[in-house]
Amino acid sequence: MKALAQHRHHPLAFLAILLMALLATGGLFVALSPKDASAQSASQADIDAGRDLFVANCATCHGMKGEGRIDGEGNTSGPSLIGVGAASVDFQVGTGRMPMQESGPQAHRKPAQFNDEQTKQLSAYVASLGPGPEIPSADAVDPAKGDPAKGGEIFRINCAMCHNASGSGGALTRGKFAPPLLDVEPTHVYEAMETGPQNMPVFNDNNLTPEDKRDVIAYLNKLDENGSPGGYSLGSLGPVTEGLFAWTVFLALILGCAYWLGAKAK
């Protein structure tokens, strides 16, 4: 009995082991989780310049500190930007979607209102508000290092239902749409997958790995290079536009024949 008593564990031993395991797990998570490199690499001068640009151009909708704003009717005039990361700002501002020209169901792509340096500064400031997806490196978006065949398969499974298999875009509901993906910067394609702008879902690294995203970029780049080998593509929107084109030509021929026969009879 005395020997058994000597080997009996203290009542708090299990709790101590559990706490140690939790601490070890948390430490490993912090050590191995991806860091917000954009915020860490940005200089304080960039962050300060970005804050000035933000206050002058973005705070009206997004709040003085990026906390977002709600109008008097309870509608969100601008969402919170805390935690969206540098990648989201680089995409929205770099493609001209922000600042928006007018309120609507979706922001349209247009010429950017800020140059590359200003976009970098705005991204640095918003990244400093809270950790979020970083701007991808040049290696991560290099189409030459991707597999376009694999990227095409990934694209058809995850993206084609909205953007069309040829990347020509398509209509959604309530005035929203999936934009065309041709002639889009590889960095912006990667950022869109990473941040899920507008109506797009987020494809983080658990959904699509960085290699998968690069393969998708390689596929879209191949579409850009190949163009339309069959001639005029009619927007590459499929049988709807092709059928409309055929009916238009067919009806024009019928009307032309009818007019010619009528004129000949006279």
**What would you call the structural class?**
mainly alpha
Percentage of residues in strands: under 5%
CATH class descriptor of the largest domain: Mainly Alpha
Note the total helix count.
12
Radius of gyration, rounded? 27 Å
What does this structure look like?
With 266 residues, the protein is mostly helical. It has two domains: 36-135, Cytochrome Bc1 Complex, Chain D, domain 2 (Orthogonal Bundle); 136-228, Cytochrome Bc1 Complex, Chain D, domain 2. It contains twelve helices and four strands. The chain has helices spanning 2-7, 13-32, 37-41, 44-57, 59-62, 85-94, 116-129, 148-158, 160-163, 186-195, 210-226, 239-265, and strands at 69-70, 76-78, 170-171, 177-178. A two-stranded antiparallel ribbon has the order 1-2. It has a two-stranded antiparallel sheet with strand order 3-4. This is Cytochrome bc1 complex cytochrome c subunit.
Comma- or semicolon-separated keywords:
12 helices; transmembrane; extended; single chain; heme; Cytochrome Bc1 Complex, Chain D, domain 2; iron; 266 residues; 2 domains; heme binding; iron ion binding
Please give a quick description of this structure.
With 266 residues, this protein is mainly alpha-helical. Helix content is 53%, strand content 3%. A hairpin with a 5-residue loop joins strand 1 (69-70) and strand 2 (76-78).
